[in-house]
Structures are given as C-alpha cells and as structure tokens.
C-alpha cells in the first residue's frame, strides 16, 4: 500500500538511508489526503504503509493529518517492530496466498443457521486464506452508466467459511507490489445472505466497483489493484479469501425491527443481503414484519445496482419496504443543485426523525466517508427544532446499538 508513491529509496549511503520501513497505522479516515488511494480505508483495522528512511518524519506528519495513529514501525525486512504493537492480530498482515492446508474432513462445517447465536470472525486468516473459486462475474451497470461494477459469486465448498449479513471478507490479489512483497488484502462488504445466492450455504457474493483515478503527480490513469483483479476475474479462477470480519453492521434478529438503510454506490452490498433475507428467502426462524427503507444515492439511473430486484420488493411488499433514490446527475435538489443522499434525508427529516424515536428502529450507512456528515447535515436542523443536539442523539443511538456505520 502506498508503494507507488513512497517506495523509491533516497540513494543515501548511510545504514538506514537506503532502507524501507513499514508503519502499522490505525484509525485512518477517508479525506482529501488519501481519497486517491487504490483501496478503501475502513473505520477499523490496520493499514500498512511502506516508507523510505528519508521520508519517515514527513509521513508521520501526513498520517497525523489523516487522523491516524502509528501502532508500530519496523524495517521492511525485519520481524521485530521498533516499538511494541497491539496484541490483536492484524487483518492486513499477509503471506503469499496458498491453498489452505486445512483438511475438509477434519473440520466439520457449521450450518449457517447456527451462526445466528455466535458471530463468526477470522475463520481464515491472511497467512492461510481459503482458496475459493469464481462461479459468477457479471456487470451491474446498465448502458449509459458510469464506471464498472461487477457482481461476483465464489464457491466455498470444501471449507468452513461462514458469515452473517453485514460482515465483510478480505480478498488477497495475486502477485506482488512495487517492493516485491505480496499484496495486502482488501476488505469488501458481503452482498449475499448467510445462505448465499444459491441458497445452499456454499457461496459468498460481492459487489465490486473497479477503482480508477488520475495520479496527482503524473496525471496517468491508475486502476485499483484488487478491484481490477476482481472485475476481470474469469469464471473458474481461484480467489484467496480471508475472514469474515465485522460486527458493526449486523442485522438485528428482531423480526419487528425497522431498518433504515442509507447507501451510495457499492455501499448497497450489505443492504442487498438484508433485503434478500427479509423478502426473497423463506425462514422458519426469521419472518420480517417491520418496515425497511432504502435511500440509495447514485450518479445515473443506469447506476442503480440491482434495480429490478429492488423495485420488485417495492411492488410486492409496499407495507414493509420503501425505496428512495438520489440520482445526482439527473435530479435536482430544492436549491437547484445536484440531488445527493443528504438532500433526500433533509426532505424526509420529519419522517426519519419519527422513526428513530422508536427503540426498534436501526439506522445503517454504507458507502463513501462523506455520508456521515451528509446525514448530520440533513437531520441536525430538524433535531435542533425539537430541542435536541444531534451529536447527543447519535450518542444515544450508539449506546442503544441502533447506529451502524461502515464508510470508506
């Protein structure tokens, strides 16, 4: 990570001058300093940054500006950190992906339905990933849309990788970075229910957008390493998978819960899993009876991912599901500007506020980092009219485990 920008050595002849160091950094958040990276920065987990000796102080300052905290520093070719690290095993520390040595006959697979009582975490770790197989890879963006977004499904047969709606898996792209080191894993929100798109407990699906941006110095087009690998993955190809991880975005077991979902782009992934579980699957132990509401932000109508299925749910379950689009390049807000998700939230502030007063209502956000401030922009004025400080209300929702955010 950061290898293209930071890997060049200084050419100094001192003992350290030509060496590279690895910073383990926690707490990074997406902002203008890092929004051109070729991978999303999550709210949790570590990021590993390779830094030449001559730029160590400069990089420390940059990490501080991005809100990060340096957990450890160690020479690239050494195992011992220059200062103590957390006891928590890092999700980003990887070796070259190999077929898992686990013998399927020795590890009895747990049914997905058992996962309800215990959240599965890190069944497969980066040093020993599960090698799945791609069985589906098809486009989601219609003609006239922007970018490339693919729906991928991986076969999990022969392993013990099980998960819950709202969790993520790691993907380790093949090959090495500019330093000759194996690529680090990237996290992707799971887009399928715990039973998989085939309903047989043997698959997992992702919704992946190919990352593409202009290099700030060379102005050349740069493509995300892992997203490009996945978007071009052929059916039948192997894929190195880790995880699952995450407990923040889990769907409540309460069948009468109200679920408000705010998504931008591929942030729809966990909500696809939610909605498929609520409305397309049949369960003896889970029959959704509450109200779910998806507010979905995209640039064009052609970028509405899973559009036909979402509108099928809206038609068949009008009492239990509401669908609202914010189409920025086609719709105008009340001031004549582009329609973003925060404008829809502001329009629906009274209705959203009323729903959030119900202790059975959960609010979920998934997508770009700016969403969180956008929701505050949309709802805080209405909260103020009720004599409530928005930040205090958010603290209350968090304390009650009704505020669920995954932004990058």
TrEMBL record:
- The record's region (Disordered) falls at 74-115
Gene Ontology molecular-function annotations: ferredoxin-NADP+ reductase activity
Going by the UniProt record, its keywords in alphabetical order are:
Antenna complex, FAD, Flavoprotein, Membrane, NADP, Oxidoreductase, Phycobilisome, Thylakoid
What is the protein's membrane topology class? Peripheral membrane protein
Query: What's a single GO CC term here?
Result: phycobilisome
Domain annotation CpcD-like: ranges:
18-76
EC number annotated for this UniProt entry: 1.18.1.2
- Residues forming the FAD-binding FR-type domain are 127-251
Source taxon at top rank: Bacteria
Q: Which CDD domains match?
A: CYPOR_like_FNR
Q: What PROSITE patterns does the record point to?
A: CPCD_LIKE, FAD_FR
Q: Where does NADP(+) bind?
A: 189, 209, 266, 298-299, 328-329, 367-368, 406
Q: Which InterPro entries match?
A: CpcD-like_dom, FAD-bd_FR_type, Flavoprot_Pyr_Nucl_cyt_Rdtase, FNR, FNR_nucleotide-bd, FNR_plant_Cyanobacteria, OxRdtase_FAD/NAD-bd, Riboflavin_synthase-like_b-brl
Cofactor(s) named in the record: FAD
Q: Report the locations given in the UniProt record.
A: Cellular thylakoid membrane
According to UniProt, the reaction catalysed is: 2 reduced [2Fe-2S]-[ferredoxin] + NADP(+) + H(+) = 2 oxidized [2Fe-2S]-[ferredoxin] + NADPH
Q: Which Gene3D superfamilies does the record cross-reference, listed alphabetically?
A: Nucleotide-binding domain of ferredoxin-NADP reductase (FNR) module, Translation factors
Q: What NCBIfam families does its record include? A: FNRPetHCyano
Tell me the protein family, please: Belongs to the ferredoxin--NADP reductase type 1 family.
Would you tell me the protein name for this molecule?
A: Ferredoxin--NADP reductase
From the UniProt record, report the name of the gene that encodes this protein: petH
